[in-house]
Specification:
Layout (H helix, E strand, L loop, with lengths): L11 E8 L2 H10 L6 E8 L18 E7 L10 H18 L4 E3 L3 E4 L2 E14 L4 E12 L19 H5 L5 H22 L2 H10 L6 E6 L2 E11 L5 E4 L5 E4 L3 E4 L1
Parallel strand pairs: 1-2
Antiparallel strand pairs: 2-3, 3-7, 4-5, 5-6, 6-7, 8-9, 8-12, 9-10, 10-11
Helix pairs in contact: 2-4, 2-5
The structure holds biotin.
């Protein structure tokens, strides 16, 4: 039977020594009926997944690899909003544990000093009977580079990456960081269920690295689009203002601040 808890993230903690991917493991547990708030973490991942089919480098012991099962009663098109929750929760946890100043890069990278320190990957299981569609569950995958050292990063990274250890000079306790992260996620998720996306969206925008800046969006082989970053809309789409005042919605791509 499917348990529906009251949105208490971390009610069940599954800590694995090794796994292919905590997202994969959480997805499997959710299909077996694991309750909302179940959190899967691992010491290492042999097939850590990034967005767009990329690999997420996951050496043993160094970092946080974590996946959270949620079962919100929302429509599939609203599910991407949940990644903005994990981005804000991650930024808050970094601030609280290190005092560093993280920024969020659309859609959902967390950066320190322009370098990527955390990545987020949501996966969902949805259902439709042709009339109604709904979500079975969403997996929030969160990867934070805590104590990785420079020599542990792959040599062929597309964008500069870093860790909290490299940026802050101090080793981070994974247990402590995880507790801060899950607490913030719990708060944000409760707010999301009560009031929707509005509050998270505001904080996300305040934390975004591109606020009011000129940006270039490259979009998988299509022509680059240049414009003024005008925030995100209620669905989480990027809003780009053109010189003639028109605003374009962008659903995927890579944003570079000029
Ligand atoms: C990205 O920036 O491309 C997203 C990276 C997401 C990595 C995390 S680590 C925990 C969870 N398990 C995975 O296999 N991926 C996510």
């Amino acid at each position: 039977s499917v348990q529906l808890n009251s949105g208490l993230i971390g009610t069940r903690l599954v800590n694995l020594a090794t796994t292919t991917s905590t997202n994969f493991e959480a997805f499997r547990l959710a299909e077996e009926g694991a309750g909302e708030g179940t959190v899967v973490t691992a010491e290492e991942q042999s097939k850590g997944k990034g967005r767009l089919g990329r690999i997420w480098s996951s050496p043993p012991g160094a970092n946080l690899y974590c996946s959270v099962i949620l079962r919100p009663r929302i429509k599939p098109f609203e599910a991407p909003q949940l990644t903005f929750l994990s981005a804000v929760a991650t930024a808050r946890a970094i601030e609280q544990t290190t005092g560093l100043k993280p920024e969020i890069k659309w859609p959902n990278d967390v950066l320190i000093d322009g370098k990527k320190v955390a990545g987020l990957l949501n996966e969902m299981s949805a259902e439709t009977d042709g009339i109604n569609d709904g979500i079975n569950f969403v997996i929030l995958g969160i990867g934070v580079n805590l104590n990785m050292t420079a020599d542990q990063f792959p040599g062929d990274l597309r964008h500069p990456a870093t860790s909290l250890l490299i940026e802050g000079g101090a080793k981070i306790s994974r247990a402590r960081f995880t507790a801060f992260l899950l607490n913030e996620l719990d708060r944000l998720y409760a707010g999301f269920l009560d009031h929707g996306f509005v509050q998270v969206r505001r904080e996300w925008q305040e934390r975004c690295n591109a606020n009011g800046r000129e940006v270039v969006v490259s979009n998988h082989g299509r022509d680059d689009i240049r414009g003024l970053f005008a925030g995100i809309d209620g669905d989480g789409a990027l809003l780009l203002r053109h010189p003639d005042g028109t605003v374009e919605r962008i659903l995927s791509g890579d944003v570079r601040v000029l």
